[in-house]
């Protein structure tokens, strides 16, 4: 297997020539288990998959997740994560997880709360999991809409009302102890 040397290889010929199904299988085989960091091999396979199949929402999503998990090790930046999730959503609007991750990237790395709110709402509309409700409530709380954040996590609005992380966030917002370091104020 040929190893990609940099992210720039994404624009050049693919590092590993495979059909789309083989890429799916190889990514599944190499995907980090538990809390393991991604290997150079999975990074290269994800880059190659996107290079050969740039229309694949799944490959863009996988690449974005792998890039985030790499941290600074391979030189990926928050702009790279953002581009991956934007491309994933562009190629398949129904990819709820891509909307969710786009929301987190916009919130955590860019403080783009309005866009993050929209991404989380799209994810929820597409039946994403508890993380989207959590993300939306975080964003709303960060911009001072605490009543709306609590309403978002209410039993009649959130199918994950009793999830431990949802309960914790709701409790922290209600008692005023919730604080995100990127938020403008704790009030």
Topology:
Layout: H1 20-30, H2 40-52, H3 57-70, H4 78-91, H5 96-108, H6 113-125, H7 130-142, H8 146-152, H9 164-175
- Counting DSSP E segments of at least 2 residues, the number of strands comes to 0
Number of helices: 9
- Uncertain runs: 1-7, 9-16, 183-187
Proportion of strand residues: under 5%
Oligomeric state: single chain
Structure description:
The protein has 187 residues and is mainly α. The chain has two domains: 1-92; 116-180, no CATH class. 59% of the residues lie in helices and 0% in strands. The chain is built from nine helices and no strands. It has helices spanning 20-30, 40-52, 57-70, 78-91, 96-108, 113-125, 130-142, 146-152, 164-175. Helix 1 (20-30) packs antiparallel against helix 2 (40-52) and helix 7 runs antiparallel to helix 8 (146-152). The longest helix has 14 residues, at 57-70. The protein is elongated.
Summarize the structure.
Helix content is 59%, strand content 0%.
């Amino acid at each position: 297997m040929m190893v990609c040397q940099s992210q720039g290889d994404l624009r050049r010929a693919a590092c590993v020539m495979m059909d789309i199904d083989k890429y799916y299988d190889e990514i599944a085989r190499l995907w980090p288990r538990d809390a393991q960091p991604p290997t150079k091999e999975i990074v290269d396979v994800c880059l190659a998959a996107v290079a050969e199949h740039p229309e694949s929402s799944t490959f863009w999503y996988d690449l974005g997740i792998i890039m985030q998990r790499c941290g600074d090790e391979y030189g990926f930046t928050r702009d790279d994560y953002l581009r991956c999730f934007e491309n994933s959503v562009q190629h398949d609007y129904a990819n709820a997880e891509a909307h969710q991750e786009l929301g987190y990237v916009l919130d955590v790395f860019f403080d783009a709360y309005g866009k993050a709110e929209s991404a989380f709402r799209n994810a929820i509309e597409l039946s994403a999991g508890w993380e989207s409700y959590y993300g939306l409530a975080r964003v709303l709380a960060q911009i001072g809409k605490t009543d709306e954040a609590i309403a978002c996590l209410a039993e009649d609005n959130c199918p994950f009302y009793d999830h431990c992380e949802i309960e914790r966030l709701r409790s922290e917002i209600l008692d005023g102890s919730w604080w995100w370091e990127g938020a403008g104020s704790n009030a």
